[in-house]
């Protein structure tokens, strides 16, 4: 057990300053590193091969829960039970929000999978601060292939691990102690059982039972010098020795017997602690929110504190002696969390197949003025964990991100059950997760100046410039970066004294075409550019954490069957989908045809396009050809600007997608018109085109594209110091597809067996409601609409509603009418 006297020097220094104040309550800011909390919502928790994991990310301030203001990269891994990272993805997070998808196509991605997400900055706080989620991924199976072990009893063949947690951090003899108990299997799954505490005469002195997720509590009065053994009734061979009680001490115990007040007991078994001066302090998210000077007058002294004085979520109660040394500690959860409940208004509760479903999202009236960003999933409820939805944004921010270690199905701690309330569940969790597991204790010991992992946003492209002939590094060379994916991005840097250059925070969507060009007047075109390999950030994974974060994802038999019949329907409709049929093959040798070379185009359409004809090849120079074909564009400025002055300061010229930066006149490449495929011109009246070119192209741009063949030699001769390369950037993004049915296609024979009917990772609510619509599928099932999100001020938003899809919906509706 952790010694409660360690690790508190920072707090003691703080407390000395606080006690100098004369008021009992205070609001003091404590300097902590900028801790952040990460949550990733997925559309569901159970998948089959061929499905897609849809995700929505929230990167929030650790204290306020407001979205972070800077952009960062989100790294996502799918990890198997051996600790191997089977699939990874990188997604952009803009001002706290990100979205993406992961196709499940690899047959290795089956079984119980850990979904891990993190940012480079979060690595400074340790991998306990990463986001973890357990997913089940299966292949399609028929009834005979389903593993019967999926449906076995939870405790069958399990060896239990029993742990005890005395409230306040110590066990006092001759005193009624409260003991927390946690019983799990070695695989981390909770075990529901009961047991007894026996003295050395084998007499029962205490009974206990686990009330929720293997957690329980019981009263225990140990005698001096007595030895105790714990026996589990369901596992009679398992016996656990109790530790020896303290002869004297003082500690905290909570008595939550009032709706508005929390009774904090200061319990002692020795008169040596009576009438001494103590300080009872409370901290929430690393900040002291109040303290109170106390002087116990008896062995069971109680302090009443109004619950509204505690911060939302986990509060850390500390008992300090007169020398300000902590002697006891207890976590208390204040479940009075302000949330924005999203009311979901459905057009009906029962729908027929392939019918339109409309629903409205209406936030709490008191939050109407707040902007909110929501993620919405409409899924077959069988595709969620059979033991309940395991995680939510609420449980992540207030439990998982603040307590180190595994919490089984944390979302359920906020729900009242028939046998146990949410308040009782949360108190059991606080009793059995001591202060050593409280993340803010760990953060207090961190020094932000020693952080080694910076914030990463986009990608870093670096390399060096060398002389083409003598291989020496070239300093002060202008390096131009052009990135072509959905649009053009260009940037300029200068190589340093070692010839190195670095472009930071470059957004690369999927596989982007990157062109680098280096020019220096003293080196002419005799330079070479080398790109260093793109550095990939990948945090190591400890295989032992698999058991810690893995959930028991039981896949319902009904979902297996539904997926199997859906697969049969798909194969019946498209029998060639999984089979390749070939006719008779005749092999013959032909000369390979040369592909037409297509160059990246940074604009949608040019203002002027010039295609040379046979007659144009007689033109003396490129200058004469261009002036003849586009006099309206060049006009009288042609000799002074494009041909007589500096192209860089007037018109930008590109040759086959590469910026032409010849420092000598003429500024146009000395190629013949016969080598040209076409010339495109962006005029100054085209604001979009000119904006793409940047300040250097404020006077327009001329794009020259050459033919295949001899022009390769032209490019090699006149475009030295150029390198083109495809670089893999962010994971490929695609939008969620949901079909629209109408009179023409509603009777289509194409099967529709979507498990996720609707997914939208970014629904914004501003001063009112949002309207959502989608079509149901061919499956008859019960569906859940799950809404999660955050307001700009950090208030958690959530909503949930269910509906059914049945072929008898139309008939049921007519009967109701």
TrEMBL record:
User: Signal as a keyword?
Assistant: yes
Which keywords does this Swiss-Prot/TrEMBL entry list? Signal
Signal sequence bounds: 1-20
Q: What is this protein called?
A: TonB-dependent receptor plug domain-containing protein
Q: What high-level taxonomic lineage is stated for the organism?
A: Bacteria, Pseudomonadati, Bacteroidota, Bacteroidia, Marinilabiliales
